[in-house]
Amino acid sequence: MTPPLPSRRGLIFGGAAVSAGALLTSCTSNESNEKGPAQAGGGAADDKPGKAVTVGFAGPQADHGWLNAINEQARARAKEYEDVTLEITEGSNDTAQQIGQIETLINKKVDVLVILPADGKALTQIGLKAMRAGIPVVNLDRVFDSQQAYRCWIGGDNYGMGLNAGRFIGERLKDKKNAKVVELAGIDNLELTRQRTEGFDDALKNYPNIKKVARQAAEFTVESGQAKMAQLLQAQSSFDALWNHDDDQGVGAERAIKQAGRDEFFMVGGAGSKHAMDAIKADNSVLKATVLYPPTMAASAIDLARALGQGKGVGGLAEHEIPASLTLYSAVVTKDNVDEYLPTGFS
Amino acid sequence: MAPVPDPAAPSPDPSASTAPSASPSASAPAPAADRTAPDGAPLLVMTGITKSFPGVRALDGVDLDVEPGEVHCLLGQNGAGKSTLIKVLAGAHRPDGGEIRWRGEPVQLTSPTAAMSLGVATIYQELDLVEHLSVTENVHLGHEPAAGGFVRRREARESTAVILARLGHPEIDPDTLVHDLSAAGRQVVSMARALSHDVRLIVMDEPSAVLDPDEVENLFRIVGDLTADGVAVVYISHRLEEIRRIGDRVTVLKDGRVAARGLPARTTPTRQVVALMTGRDVEYVFPERPAAPDPGAVPEPVLRVEGLARAGEFEPVDLEVRPGEIVGLAGLVGSGRSEILETVFGARRPTAGRVLVGGRPVRPGDVIAAVRAGVGLAPEERKAQGLLMLEPVVRNVSVSSLARFSRGGWLDRARERSAAREAVRELSLRPDDPDVPVRTLSGGNQQKVVLARWLLRGCKVLLLDEPTRGVDIGARAELYALIRRLADEGVAVLLVSSELPEVLGLADRVLVLREGRVVHTAPARELDEHRVLDLVMEGSPAR
Amino acid sequence: MTTGATSGPAVPQPSPPTAAGPAGNGPHPPETTKDPAGPGKPGGPGGGPGKGPARRVPAALTDLRNLSLLGVLVALVVVGAITRPEQFLSGDNLTLVLTQASVIGVVTVGVTLVIIGGGIDLSVGAIVALASVWATTLATQEYGLGGILFCALFVGLGCGLVNGVLIAYGRMVPFIATLAMLASARGLALLISDGRTQVVSVDSVLQLGLPDSYVLGIPPLVLVFAAVTLLGWLVLNRTTFGRRTVAVGGNAEAARLAGIDVKRQRLKLYLISGLCCGIAAFLLIVLTGSGQNTNGNLYELDAIAAAIIGGTLLSGGRGTITGSVLGVLVFTTITNLFALNNLQSDVQQIAKGAIIVAAVLIQNRTARGSGTT
Q: What does each C-alpha distance from A304 to A57, A123, A125, A309 come to in angstroms?
């Protein structure tokens, strides 16, 4: 393909390469004029500064929009409190590595730990260890195997997400005969994917006129979303509704839909990305709704951690103590309420 | 014109040597005969062993018999078939034909384990030790003393220490990693491993090559101890004086056949042994040398080597080759002849000196520069270094001249093909078909493909390293004629060969090498085999 | 010790095993007619037995490999036609399969060349990810279509350059060097994107993936794939570069001693692989309308698997672009077939593994039948 370059040409080529390199490095910037990270919905829990609290935060590698939003929410929330110092670890998807990171935090004697484990079951022991060391643990989203491993769990509701998506679709299609529904799931070997599908199926059982005709699993990536959606569209020449588990892979799915030139159905997303909410608001695509799996839970986790550290309860509740578990509601965001949720959308 | 080896040499007729007679060849009554085991059967008799690899017949009816308690030396040039033979003996290669009898019983050596269980242990030149295990672990590898699946470490360690002491190396700690031992130390470990089995026959492949003189003495002592215990040793070495000291009988291999069998190791004249190794048992047919050129019209040398040296391999060498001239490098293995050739070609980087082609210096250590300057090499290991075995003849021939058949990188395949076909036809390749895969060709024809490559490239200097290695006898004459013809067409040829008659018969001028030094230069017609043998062995290759 | 005794065996050329071959290759005339040197010359090594059948082995071999793969493809099509006749055989579906194959297909062409040249490239997926992310940052998007394309290609080339220099001149083992590139390119992609999906808002880029820009009903992606395949084929079969690649992969030492600049050859091969990754990244951007650091997941394995079932020797020195592209098409068709039949991921993965094994087994059998050792 490339004939041997004489050195003279080589020089020119080299020079071009260097300048191209310089141009390229300037291209790594992702700064935009728009407002950056989304803010958590509600105001801070209790703005009056109290006893200083050091919160250790350990999460998985932020290689995905939602996880990235989790980190940002935690950081932003901690910054709002003068009395909170956040010790945040480099995220890791490796169980052993995450255990090591958490042990470091324990050794540093942080006051409270917020842990989003890469794998809840596998990290149970380290949760137990922290609790035994007298450090209360706020378990974020992916639940530990034992209740003794955390003081408080806060997280999303995967089953509820499927349930709400199914209900929303069911209500819109309940008067249509022989309605067909298609599901684009997430990574199949994750428990959460199975829970979402289970909730979705349970909800659809209430609507005998609706049949789920196809389901394919993508991998939470744009690329896989595009590929699987393209195949689904080919397999089903016509259907009425689509539920996509994840708004990130939804970017690819929407692309496939556009490429196939199809618009006879409506689409419901999952998780609640800013991109999806923008599309819902604009109302110019098949995407009509998305079911939340709010990353604001990380901000709430910081609130809980602070309250635990200062020995307070949660404002607005009669309880003197922090609850043992908080399951968040998976609200359905539609055009009607999108403005309310837009600030929490992650990119 | 070609010298014929000493007629006194024993001449076992290969076709008649099937009788597994314990007595060595007729002309050399063996003093070892009386060592035959009490039951009369020799320890090992191999008869008519054959083994072929694609393109070459490595063993062609080889016989070998070994008595208990003797040191049987195996001699032969590189490629004579020694390695293949000992691999057959070690169970690493399965022979295509022939019979192996062990203490009179026919056996199949189907695997190294089978050979081991008979009591045959082999100490290879490239030692097969696991570097990152300890001495003990290596010695007992595969047969660890164990109880209930657990290695009995102390027992293994103690028995290792005992064996090491027996080998005269009690100073080697059984817990050292083999990685940390010297070459000699590793060899001791390898030998200890052999002795950790109930061994009846030990094959040693050039064991002294890595040893210092005093270590060699120790090796000899060990060999003496072993044979006193009735263990037989098959000993391979290039060093004749070693064979004189410890050997009982000698078998000489040449071109995959037995050149002489059961010679008395101590009394056979050195010259006879060397002649058997290097000589030729057929009348060579060498092409006529051209008449001596008119002294006034001697062409300028096209290849000039000035003070070329590589530390540790060969000392500064000067030589010139004129167009049309064939210059031979003669010497024993290890004399530096191949190294010189590869350094001239730039495949090795010289530590001193320079190479000029057509009066212009060539960048040292740069093959591409050498090829551009018009130098071509037919390497010693034709398959590993010369040929693209998966590819057809045409691509092997054109590979060095691709630029000629291309414009802007695009190949003109028709031109490539016809040019390659032409070159192949000129060398009368058989089959005369440029599309056959080169791996299906015989050794001689494979060599022709390499020559055709450089012929097509139009090179001015041709370096030939063992051009007839692995080439059938009949095809050699043809190659000789070809090489001479190339010279006549104006190519300067520098030739290396283990076979003295080949160098003397083919070359115009000969440089005799000994231990990395040129000891003599003379026109080939002024030399004969005896004279060269004296030169290469002068002072004996003792180290 | 006579001449007669030694030349007695009449140079029994160890007749290469190809002699067993002709069965598969149709009738063979006795070779005597073709051998003028014939039996008359006893010293004629290499004449005689090995000759006739040997001639056709290399061509027949590659053909057979590709043929068996083509057989697998045909079998898949038959299954598709039976199970989902309406959807599977439609023109739309053909377009879909080819489109889905184009990204990994372009990568596979580069990887095939690298493998034939005796190397391996484990970093292709990561390079695709990095290039797709780098080319879709907000800063790059300001330069429009040209900026995105240029950036993707240059990032690919740059990574290929690093791989090539490390391997050819730094004497690193290709496996390790490209493994290191895999890790660092993925890391850099994550760093740049921060794990976000970077949606492309440049209309001209988005437009390329939509039906409006199809040329004669063919998506531009598929055209690029076809062009890269054709170029790859030409480079391998019709250029000195391709010839040298085969030589270096087949026997690097022999190639060096034949005067080929082995190092430069290796460098160029990794450059090509990097460039292919850059092209693939651009195609992926067009296809998905975005860049993401998770792009190109496991491309390295898919590409290598496609090349291997396409008959490329993992040790180098032999392989075809056609075979690799057929391999890619087989994989894409499987995915398509399963999705159309609504089979779930678990079944898909099991079947994919089974088909790799089956394809290679069939090839080995046909190869043996045609007379190789």
A: 13, 21, 22, 8
- Counting Cβ atoms within 10 Å, is residue A172 exposed (0-12), middle (13-18) or buried (19+)? middle
How many Å apart are CA C373 and CA C31, to the nearest integer?
21
To the nearest whole angstrom, how far is the Cα of B62 from the nearest Cα of chain C? 13
Q: Which two tokens stand for residue A62?
A: 């932020």
pLDDT digits 0-9 by tens, C147-162: 999 999 999 999 999 9
Distance CA A135, CA A129 (A): 9
First to last CA, chain A: 41
SS3 content of chain B, % helix, strand, coil (to 5): 35, 25, 40
Give the lowest-confidence range in B122-131, B278-287, B387-396, C198-207.
B278-287
The answer to whether residue B16 neighbours chain C at the CB level (below 8 Å) is no
Say if CB B498 and CB B328 are below 8 A apart. Answer: no
> Using CA atoms, how far apart are residues C331 and C329, in angstroms rounded to an integer?
5
Q: Identify the chains in contact with B, defined as 3+ C-beta pairs within 8 A.
A: C
Give A 56-75 residues with CB within 8 A of chain C. Answer: 61-65, 67-68
Q: Is there a shared CATH topology between the B26-113+237-284 domain and the B317-374+460-474+489-543 domain?
A: yes
Q: Looking at beta carbons, which residues of chain A come within 8 Å of C151?
A: 24, 27
Among the partner-chain residues A2, A62, A222, the one whose CB lies closest to the CB of C290 is A222
Q: For an interface test with C, which of A1, A66, A68 has the most C Cβ atoms less than 10 Å from its Cβ?
A: A1
Distance of residue B243 Cα from the nearest chain C Cα, in angstroms: 25
CATH class of B26-113+237-284: alpha beta
Residue C21 within a domain? no
Q: Which CATH number fits domain B317-374+460-474+489-543: 3.40.50.300, 3.40.47.10, 3.10.450.50, 3.20.19.10?
A: 3.40.50.300
Structural domain range at position A189: 158-292
Is the ipTM here above 0.85?
no
Beta-bridge partner residues of B328: B495, B510
Residue C78, Cβ density class (10 Å: 0-12 exposed, 13-18 middle, ≥19 buried): exposed
Beta-carbon contacts below 8 Å between A and C: 162
Judge contact between B135 and B178, C-beta under 8 A. yes
Which residues in C lie closer than 8 A to residue B54 (C-beta atoms)? 14, 16-17, 373
Q: What's the CA gap between B494 and B327, in Å, rounded?
A: 5
Q: At what angle do helices C91-116 and A222-235 cross, to 10 degrees?
A: 140
pLDDT greater at residue B290 or residue B181: B181
Tell whether A347 lies on the interface with C, counting CB pairs under 8 A.
Answer: yes
